[in-house]
Amino acid sequence: MRKLALIIIIILSCMAGARAAYITNMPRTLVQPNGDTLRCFASGDEFYVRLHDEKGFTIVQNPTTGYFVYGVKQDGDIVPSPYIAGQCDPAAKGLQPNLCISRERYLKLRERMTAPAKRNVIRDGNTNRGNMNNVVIFIRFADDTTFENSFSSIQLMFNDSSENYTANSMFNYFKRTSYNQLFIRSHFFPEPDGEFVVSYQDSMPRSYFEPWSETNPNGYQENDTVYERAQREQDMLARACAFVDSLIPDSLDMDYNHDGYIDNVCFVVKGNVGDWNVLLWPHRWSLYTTEAYIHGKRVYDYNLQLADAAGYFNTSVMCHEMFHSLGAPDLYHYHDESGMDAVGSWDLMCSNQNPPQQTCAYMKYKYGNWISVDDIIPVDDYGTYTIMPLNSETPDRISYRFRTQNPLEIIVMDYRSQNAPFDNTIPNRGAIFYRVNALYNGNADYNGYDMLDEIYIFRANGSPTENGYLAAANFRGNVSSRREFSPLTNPYPFLSNGEVVPLHIIDFTNGPDSLQFTYTEWVSVTDYEDNSISIYPNPAQDFLTVQIAQPGHFTMQIYNVQGQLVGTAITEESTCQLNISNYPGGCYFIKIFEKENYCKTIKFIKQ
Questions:
Q1: Which of 119, 191, 473, 499 yields a CA-CA distance of 20 to 30 A from 133?
Q2: Helix (H/G/I), strand (E/B), else coil: 587
Q3: Residues 6+ away with beta carbon under 8 Å from 482
């Protein structure tokens, strides 16, 4: 297993670029040129935001008229249709819902943001451990009034370190999820005046940071050759850094790893997500277009938050973006028309919840540096084991790993307790199994539609081609349909290429604060000899006969190669005929039980 540890050892240098939290259905009110209001939603990240109505019909602004209209797809992009949004039934006009730019267009937008912002970051045994000071800078535009947020509400989201076990703050989250190894304390500038948030006021108005149109000639241009968005945003941030430079005390250590860079700056900007379309969206980025310094150290890694985005200016989004600054990648697919979701709301770096949920043990090991590879305990010997909740006080027995036939892929098991702090928003309680592919970093990069996921959680009805039900990924002693994990269960273990893994876990038993399970040998159908039960003909076309030496009460379950149950039969006779005429051609398995006792699994071919 030491060889396996070397394969999945932490990469000592990583590339820092732009990262985001994916936000869905953010309410937004638009104003048409004639003064009419249009209520819609925004979904996306800082790479691409899609406006849409409640039925999913995409909305874009016609740059010539300034009107928001329904969109149509053309050459991989979304372009304006003649139909003004909200004034007609788009379906009756033959328009299609849920239109999105092409994958190629999306990746081009992402690359334009991420490529220039990359820098080598050296990671060692002290990375993400100790005391880190996060600098928070408040900003408003030239035509903005003062912040309406109370300072105490913001302070608690960042810094609540009270004895309250479930304090929902960024400080408490990283303290807990790092097993008391990382303490991030935030400091606010300009300093508040009691409950009043004091802010830097920029020289440019809000319209300067909105896209150009006939109705907004002051906006920024953005096309394949012009990219004013980054320059305008980062010039403003640099001006804000210069403003607060003299306000920050010399005693504040802002470079805990002594690399010459400020560890992290969080810019909290007045306004709502919907006000600025795609330019100012909650994200983590790097200040690369303009050099900015505080106390002689360069400002580079930063988070940007929106103070009036009620649903998204919260601890969860702060923690997601901060974990990016600490080195973690996204686990959602930046753009995927297939609808496949590898992780869902089981991990902070995919679909983050509030209060924020834990990140899985492998993420804590590789990107957090809060546990060692040996804390994900290798299981080589058959037997019964005890697993503790992932959000325990210490990392003792919180995770196990199992080898597969591919030396670059392992299967990891965590136990999610669904208890506070920071795991009471996950879909279900119990053990989850996930595949780790050591070739990849995160789940956002892939070629074509062949998913190159670093982490994939096994779930009911999930397969290499079907998304399945992520909420049904948990295994517990009282979940009757998921008391066993094997090639013939639902879910079942498989590699990135779809190859089935011969892993066999049984006997999940709930404890008061733990879970027991048994790792046992997987006996393939070719190795199991039991001549008392047989089938014929094999291959079969329309009917299959099961022959049993002694009559009894037998239950027969038929599974396809994806581990999905496709048929069931019960008999008390020694001979039973099964109608398989409607099954698609291929390989199937019959799993046979006498009452509650497992007897045999037999493979057959349907012609």
A1: 119
A2: strand
A3: 430, 460, 472, 474, 475, 476, 489, 491, 508
